[in-house]
Each structure stands twice: as structure tokens, then as C-alpha cells.
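Hey,
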Amino acid sequence: MSIQNVKKVVLAYSGGLDTSVILRWLQDTYQCEVVTFTADLGQGEEIEPARAKAEMMGVKEIYIEDLREVFVRDYVFPMFRANAVYEGTYLLGTSIARPLIAKRQIEIARETGADAVAHGATGKGNDQVRFELGYYGLNPDIKVISPWREWDLTSRTRLIEYAEEHQIPVPKDKRGEAPFSVDANLLHISAEGKVLEDPNEEAPEYIYSRSVSPEAAPDVATVVEVGFAKGDPVSIDGAAMSPATLLTKLNELGGANGIGRLDLVENRFVGMKSRGVYETPGGTILLAAHRAMESITLDREAMHLKDEIMPRYAKLIYNGFWFAPEREMLQALIDKSQERVNGTVRLKLYKGGVHVIGRASPDSLYSLAHVTFEEDDVYDQHDAEGFIKLNALRLRLAKRREG
């Protein structure tokens, strides 16, 4: 891309070392105006300092937005209606945040007349793909700048040198080698790199920040009841809560009981394997609760169909195809299945474990009259004989053919 072609760019800006260097690099390299966008997705850090830093660097248009409720309501909850899990264990905490950030960048570009957007993702990871698929899916003509694929600042040492050369403040804890890289939002926090790069080495305890170790969790279980309406959690212990407030509460309960830790080697979309350590305390509780709610409210074949399409749906989110037509089609199917997923689930939280101990629904398909081991007058057990023989017919014919 020719640098003369960019007049104004919207940068996804955290205020940290990397994006602060990117901000100045964009100004110097592209000679363009930069608009900064900083989103509060529940990462647990103050975001207002980013405003002062952007102002100091000459930025005139600064967007700082609290998107926690939007994030949980419009991205996290729809994903959890699908019970989405990538490669059997990962609850997609980083993946689901990227389309929201990309969407706001495109909207801000439209509002400010910007002709380009930029992000701070590296050329080795998944996030560059997620951001850029989001950009192009919403504005096919937008110009995209990915500094890590363009510049020669190939190490943290070079970033710090560049920052010092350009009078960009470098936080004390960023000098030297950071022990690991962190990404956080209201759904999860992840750690990658440095001390975690050897997948055979146990992650040190200081990696974890949202949960106590299961060994240090209380010796008495916590019992919690989650209420659902149309597949979404709406209350805890009978108290109605907004989406972000509810997930925050589940995070507190889960973290205090050592729930939601995951040490994972995953297959990145770009082709390599990577080791990460994730904490998703509230999401781990929510997944167990939602599946329990579906167990008494969903028809068998509807549930099995959801389980069949879930890996495809999870892969689409992981790879960055949130705005793709096939994800939207799957979402419509999933949302249809949730119309009667209403009721309450009781769970016991204990030393890293989430145990379902009760579930009730006004739309329950569970019939005690049919499943009881006592005498009943609604089910004729003789009917099973014909059912079995019809299902066995093809097996018997095939076996007879063998002689």
C-alpha cells in the first residue's frame, strides 16, 4: 500500500507500549491523521489513561467506550447459546472480542471520514486474521494497515528503543523482557509466550490472576442457581442482572472456587501450534449451566443437531468469520432452538469443579411418568420389541448375507 493513499486511520489503541509505538509510527510513516479507539471490554484495567497518552501524542479524535454490556449481550451470550468450544476445551474468550472491536473501528471510520483502520496484532497470530476479516466483512473497500507486517521493529528491545527515541513513555514493567503476553476481557484472560513457550513445563502460579488454585479454594462448596430465558442467563440466585453484571458475578464465584483454568496447546488458523494458559471462571460455570438447562428443554434430535454443528460454529468464531453468512445462518438455527430453554439450574462449585445438582423448567420435556421404575400406565413396554426388531432388521440381513 502506498503511504500517500492513507489520509486518516482508526487505530485500535490500548495505550500500552505496542500500540503507542504504532500510533507514532503511523504518524511518521504514513503522514496521516490518527483516530484512536479504546474499548472497555472488562479487561480489568483503567482505560482513561489512554486518553491522556493519545492527547500527548497529538491525537485530536479520541474514542473511549465502555462496551461491556454490548460485548456480553451481543457476542458472548449468542456464542454460549451454541455451547461453542474450540478443540474440545477452549471457550473462545479472545476470539469473540475481536469482531466487536473491528465493528466499532469501521463505524468510527465512517463517522470520522477515515479511509483506513489499523491494529496491533502480530504477523504470527490469529488476531490479525480476525480483525481483518471483520474489517473487510463490514467494509470491503477499507484500507488496512498491519504494522507488524510492515515495519522493522522485530523485537521488544527495538520497540523500547523506538519509544525512547520518540519520547513515548515506557512503563517501568515493560523494560526488559516481559515474562508473558496477556489478553483480557470480561469473559477470560489468556497468557502466552516466554515462560509458557515450552508446553512440557508447568505454568507457574503467578500466571493466574482471576482464580485461586483448586488446592487453595474453600473446603466448603458454593451452591448457585442460574436462571435462563430463551437460552440466555438472566439471574443468579433469583436476582435479575444485566448481561455484564451477571458474567462479572459468575467470574467472582468461579474464581473464588478455582474454576476455569485451562492449559492448552491449540492449532492456530495460520498453521502453527501454540501453548496458552486461559482463565474463564464465569464462562465455565455458564457452559455447564446452559447444557443442563438444554438437557430438559430441548428435543433429542434438536440437541444432537446442535452438538453436530457446534464444532463448525466454534471454528468459524476462532478463525474470525463472525460476520460471514454461514455463521449468521448457524446462529439463526441455534437461536430458534433456544425459544423454550427457560428455567433454573442449580450448581455446586467446589475446588475447580462445576457440578450440576438440579434443574427445573416450565418448558421441561422430562416426564417422570414415562421414566419411573415404578408401575405406570403411560408406557407399554411391549412396544419396545417391535422398535428393536425394526432397527435390527438391516443388521440381521447383512449378517445373513455373510452366510
